[in-house]
Amino acid sequence: MKNPDLNVKLHEIRSHIRTVHGNVPLHRKESKRKYSFSNLPFGQQLAIWDELWRTENDFWPRLHAFFLFGAAPEKRKRAVRDVADNCAMAGAGG
Predict the structure, then answer these.
(1) Cα 25 from Cα 83, distance rounded (Å)
(2) Which residues contact residue 42 at a Cβ distance below 8 angstroms, ignoring those fewer than 6 apart?
(3) Nearest-CA neighbor of 21 among 71, 60, 78?
(4) What does R_g of the chain's alpha carbons equal in angstroms?
(5) Residue 93 pLDDT more than 60?
(6) Which residues contact 20 (CB under 8 A, 6 or more apart)?
(7) Distance CA 82, CA 19 (A)
(8) What was the pLDDT predicted at 38?
(9) pLDDT at residue 1, as a whole number
(10) Angle subtended by helix axes 42-55 and 59-71, to nearest 10
(11) Boundaries of every domain in the chain
């Protein structure tokens, strides 16, 4: 991975999830935990969790990413629109 800051954020997530010993309801509760990057715009948070999803093979970290994605449908829609708008602007030379 090229971004050392991203590595720190992924390590923060993985370290926390390794401390959670329990069932799915406990993991759902713990997935609401605030991370150092939780105040970033949702699209940036989503990029961090997407990287975790793509690079992690363990069930529990992927479940936390799934909880984040499913918990905020309006934020998710807005983030997708923002990405589409940015792509459209880039394609139009903007």
Answers:
(1) 32
(2) 72, 75, 76, 78, 79
(3) 60
(4) 15
(5) no
(6) 26, 27, 30, 60
(7) 35
(8) 92
(9) 47
(10) 150
(11) 23-31+39-94
- Rounded average pLDDT over 57-83: 78
Collect all residues with Cβ–Cβ distance below 8 Å to 53 and sequence separation of at least 6: 62, 65
Which residue in the block uniquely carries the two structure tokens 């590595």? 7
Rounded to an integer, the average pLDDT of 53-66 is 92
Q: Which is nearest to 49 in space by CA: 21, 29, 72?
A: 72
Cβ(13)–Cβ(64) below 8 Å: yes
Angle at which helix 42-55 crosses helix 4-18, to 10 degrees, equals: 70
Tell me, what DSSP letter sits at residue 1? -
pLDDT tens-digit profile of 41-51?
888 888 899 99
- CA-to-CA separations, 33 to 19, 29, 43, 67, 72, in angstroms, rounded: 13, 8, 18, 11, 14
Per-residue confidence band for 71, with pLDDT thresholds at 50, 70 and 90: low
